[in-house]
Amino acid sequence: MAMRIFFLILSFALLALCTSADPVNFGYYGANGPQKWGSLSPSFSACSEGKAQSPVDLRKENIVYSKQLKPLERHYHCSNASLVNNGFNIGVHFEGKVGNLRIDGQDFYLKQMHWHSPSEHRVSGKQMEAELHLVHQNEEGSFAVVGVLYKLGDSDPIISKMEKKLVELANESSAGYEGAHIDLGTFNARHVKLRARSYYRYMGSLTTPPCKEIVTWTILGKMRSISIQQVHLLKAPLSPQFKNNARPVQPLDGRKILKYTVQA
Fold first, then answer.
1. What's the rounded Cα separation, in Å, for the pair 20 and 191?
2. How far is Cα 199 from Cα 204, in angstroms, rounded to an integer?
3. DSSP characters over 120-154
4. Fewest Cβ atoms closer than 10 Å to its Cβ: which of 100, 225, 230, 264?
5. For residue range 189-218, what is the model confidence (pLDDT) as tens digits?
6. Residue range 124-138: average pLDDT?
7. Which DSSP symbol is given to 94?
8. Which residue, among 134, 79, 70, 78, has the nearest Cα to 102 in the 3D structure?
């Protein structure tokens, strides 16, 4: 019981890293939809007034190849984890230190990961079936998020390992347990494969309110696959207004997207 209470407290603490402490509710359609986020609360103003918002469309004409970018350097290890219904997405929250991602000499520490379906980022206008976000944060409070796009196809091995837990989470959520979560036991973050021959990098924002522009985005060039059954499992615990939880793409407003590619 003590461990369950600990995970519940941890889940809400980590959720606060990527959302506002403001109690105003937001959604993905209607009066609280993305077009209205900026007017829901003064703390959400960046959602409508910001000039470096996310997600974006990865279009060829806005991409610049960069020789300064380096291969992704990450150091992950095992940690206790819980599967959490964040209300607006399904995520995995980690207990304690689970490793870091190094960008431009700075260490960003892995805090949690979560899914959006359909994808938030697009490729030449095409929206994918789902998107995984691995959320890292440095000591100054800025974020580095690695995005993994999914196309429909074979089952994703990471989600496959937690399919029964997703069913349990859906049952807890339907029973009305606020902040429903399921203990995953030991989770090896190294199994989340981030090796890619290419990736995209740009400066942007959180994709949910308060939409703060404090995120270094890295979108892997290699897509993963996900089965339609797994998509349904990721949506099942969520209430109807959050089952399609992708913010529309935002204008670049003069930003360029850098691309890293392994040199032959």
1. 30
2. 15
3. SSEETTEE-SEEEEEEEE-TTS-EEEEEEEEEESS
4. 264
5. 888 877 788 999 999 999 999 999 999 999
6. 97
7. E
8. 70
